[in-house]
Design a protein that fits this description.
The complex is a heterodimer of chains A (389) and B (375). Chain A is built from twelve helices and eight strands. Chain A is α+β, with helices and mostly antiparallel strands and 389 residues long. In chain A, β3 and β4 form a beta hairpin. The longest helix of chain B has 29 residues. Chain B is an alpha+beta fold. The chains are: A alpha+beta (389), B alpha+beta (375). Chains A and B meet through α7, β8, α8, α9 and α12 of A and α1, α4, α9, α10 and α11 of B.
Chain lengths: 389, 375
């Protein structure tokens, strides 16, 4: 039950962070704001195998766990990387899972195909993250999970452009990945992967915001002293630092649970997203406030994080709905309460308290495993495709 | 690990009876000698200690699991918690004689130790301690008053912070002792609290303490204190919050209120925060298992968990409404009055063991590297 990173995960984190320091600095992030997609950055990420890191090896992926990918995604969030790494990784995995080896291989080779975490309505999947640069999107549409083609040149709405979110019309040349009645569970799986990885991305964003605030508070002097020496400011940042640590551990646990088919896979993706989204928004907001009037200026970097924190949070809807999803998954849906013993949140990890659940949650397995996000299932090393080799 | 946890759960299931829980609630003494001695007899108290201490060499992670199970069972374990943290501190800072004399008595369940840190004018500023210890040959003469000496009325020793140098900087003139409570001159006055727990004022009137009860160097009490505080904050705080959620959930299901969106949202917040508390606590325990003293990590865990615990108790009181005000044992009490009792109790958790403000200061300076704070 190791809550720290393995040597391999530290290698991933450090090499991705080095790449992003060169390719996703504040100026590059600003330059890509109109589309939310930086083709040069994308090329560099594809070259080191990052978007394909958690795709199966037989389609040309790196075979890594989601937990391993989450470490890299956290670094992407910290760099506000203008690249749909999460959406493409989840789409590629879904294509491979549903037998579309050819399309999955294209994704592994660098094609941009994304996922819509919300179902389509009236033939349109709206504001699909990363879709602005995508040639296709995996969408839940009229009870079917489909791959819908998209024109990557279509304009992106301005408000969310930093995320490359765009509408995808689901009306021609659809490839069915899963039909009724399995499509809904298939989409839930995909949305849970998106939520858990996006939670990791938001943790990176929150950490970045906090780092900016700490640096500014150490350098900025008022009343003859660094403002970071004032208790009122220190306590606010200490609370945010504690929030970020908690959100980070929760996101890692959600990814670990999805990797191993643990019972926690039912509730933790929703919990991780709800918490990380709340923490990222609050941390970015406090970090902006610490900067005073300068934080409000476009010239300062903290506003880049602030705007993205709110936008990402809204991509799956009203945050209150996130909490409703957590309750559904922890304690059963409205009108159908489960017995106490069925909830993994009423006690620590224990096999005796982890009944397997049938139905839409069938992906969870009953096999009790200890939580070892880094340990027993590392998969083939992502480092094999890294630029350090 | 899971086998150890299952054994612990089975043991607690046998010994933590409703009567044990009710008695602790009624008397406000969060300790039960019957349970304590049964734990000692079956080796639970010493489980984390190496064989030379009669223990099983269980890892800090296993001991964290045991503590979680104790809280989840509702066991009154404050006495055990404090005695154990003093035993660990003595192992780090005590003399060979103290280790041989006191640690075995703690591990065998024979004695408890209470904490004599706080004073009327020394709370968060604990180094402002004014209780005097003056050397007289091989003995020290102690005079002063301590506040919040919880479980003093059940304890055989007090872990006593004293001032031995009035001229030096305040944290450089402190000395720690572990003093037998039956030493002449020690008085105990009960103090009732809003949470129902009993605490005490203890009085020290020309108490003569042999030098062999001194822990650490003369004027080196601050270092001993820092070690003890790490052990105090690095404990499994989240079990109580899980118990609170279980009470809330049971109430929500039995009344049908669980289908209301406002109730569901509060349960979700409780569940998420509990999981965060769980993970932060486990991380601190994991670091301890590597031999590190998890100062910042334990501090974050204590801060996050206790602040969350209070918010959940407050939220659940709100959804219970007026019926939630009826106390445990009264007819018609919602959730059998346990949420009301928790709401009162939990207010102290952000105060003892370091107030949230002290903890935030530690995180700001040690984790974030911010300049030393000013008010």
């Amino acid at each position: 039950m190791d809550l720290t990173l393995t040597d391999e995960q530290e290698l991933i984190r450090d090499s991705v962070a080095r790449l992003l320091a060169k390719r996703s600095g504040p100026e590059q992030v600003r330059a890509a704001e109109a589309t939310g997609f930086d083709p040069e950055l994308w090329g560099a990420l594809v070259a080191v195998g990052l978007p394909a890191m958690a795709l199966p090896e037989d389609v040309g992926g790196g075979g890594s766990t989601l937990a391993g990918l989450g470490i890299a995604v956290e670094a992407c969030g910290a760099a506000l990387a203008s690249a749909p790494v999460v959406e493409v990784a989840v789409a590629g995995r879904a294509l491979a899972r549903h037998g579309r080896a050819e399309e999955a291989a294209r994704v592994a080779a660098g094609a941009v195909v994304v996922v819509a975490p919300r179902p389509a309505a009236d033939g349109v999947a709206t504001l699909v993250p990363g879709a602005g640069a995508a040639e296709g999107a995996v969408v839940l549409h009229r009870g079917h999970l489909v791959l819908a083609p998209h024109d990557p040149g279509a304009p992106v709405p301005r408000a969310l452009s930093a995320l490359g979110a765009a509408d995808v019309a689901v009306d021609h040349d659809l490839v069915v990945l899963a039909a009724e009645p399995d499509a809904e569970a298939a989409h839930t799986r995909l949305a849970d992967e998106w939520r858990s990885l996006t939670a990791a991305w938001l943790v990176g964003l929150a950490q970045h915001s906090l780092d900016l605030a700490v640096r500014y508070a150490t350098e900025r002097h008022q009343f003859g002293v660094p403002i970071g020496s004032f208790q009122a400011l220190q306590h606010r940042m200490a609370d945010r630092a504690t929030d970020v640590e908690g959100a980070r551990l929760l996101a890692r646990k959600a990814l670990w649970a999805l990797d191993g088919g643990e019972p926690e896979a039912a509730a933790h993706p929703a919990m991780a997203f709800a918490r990380a989204a709340e923490v990222a928004q609050r941390t970015a907001s406090d970090a902006l406030h610490v900067h005073g009037g300068y934080g409000f200026m476009e010239e300062y970097d903290v506003q880049l994080a602030f705007r993205r924190a709110k936008a990402v949070r809204l991509l799956v809807g009203d945050p209150h709905d996130d909490l409703a999803a957590v309750t559904d998954r922890c304690f059963g849906p409205v009108g159908a309460p489960l017995p106490d013993a069925a909830s993994v949140v009423l006690g620590p990890v224990d096999p005796a308290r982890r009944p397997a659940r049938p139905g839409p949650r069938a992906w969870t397995s009953a096999s009790p495993r200890r939580w070892r996000p880094s340990g027993p299932r590392p998969g083939p090393s992502w480092a094999a495709t890294s630029p350090t080799r | 690990m899971e086998a150890f946890r299952s054994e612990a759960r089975a043991f607690l299931g046998r010994h933590v009876t409703d009567e044990v829980i009710e008695t602790a609630h009624r008397t406000g003494t969060v300790h039960d000698w019957g349970l304590h001695r049964a734990m000692a007899a079956e080796g639970w108290i010493s489980a984390g200690w190496p064989a030379e201490w009669g223990g099983q060499g269980r890892s800090p992670l296993e001991m964290n699991a045991l503590t979680e199970e104790m809280y989840l069972s509702g066991a009154p374990v404050d006495g055990l918690g404090v005695a154990t943290l003093v035993a660990h501190t003595l192992l780090h800072e005590g003399t060979e004689w103290q280790k041989g004399e006191i640690i075995p008595r703690i591990l065998s369940g024979e004695v408890l130790v209470c904490l004599g840190y706080s004073e009327p004018d020394a709370g968060s500023d604990v180094a402002a301690c004014a209780t005097r210890a003056v050397r007289d040959g091989d003995e020290w003469v102690v005079n002063g008053q301590k506040m919040f000496t919880t479980l003093a009325h059940e304890s055989q020793y007090v872990f006593l912070l004293t001032r031995t140098d009035t001229e030096a900087a305040k944290h450089k003139g402190l000395t720690m002792f572990v003093v037998p409570m039956d030493t002449p001159g020690i008085g105990v006055t009960p103090v009732p609290t809003m949470g129902g727990e009993r605490t005490n004022i203890t009085w020290y009137d020309d108490v003569r303490v042999p030098d062999r009860y001194r822990v650490g160097e003369v004027d080196g009490g601050w270092k001993v204190m820092m070690t003890a505080l790490v052990f105090e904050r690095n404990s499994a705080w989240y079990g109580e919050a899980v118990r609170l959620l279980a009470h809330g959930l049971r109430w929500a299901r039995s009344t049908g209120r669980i289908d209301e969106p406002s109730v569901r949202e509060r349960l979700a917040r409780a569940a998420i925060g509990n999981e965060v508390a769980n993970l932060l606590g486990w991380r601190a325990a994991w670091l301890a298992s590597t031999g590190a003293l998890p100062g910042v990590e334990g501090t974050m865990a204590k801060l996050a968990t206790t602040e969350h615990y209070q918010r959940v108790a407050d939220d659940l009181m709100d959804v219970l409404g007026a019926e939630g005000l009826r106390r445990h044992g009264e007819p018609g009490a919602a959730a059998d009055g346990w949420i009301e009792a928790t709401y009162r109790h939990c207010q102290v958790t952000t105060i003892y063991g370091g107030t949230s403000e002290v903890l935030r200061g530690i995180i700001a300076e040690r984790a974030l590297g911010l300049p030393r704070g000013r008010a």
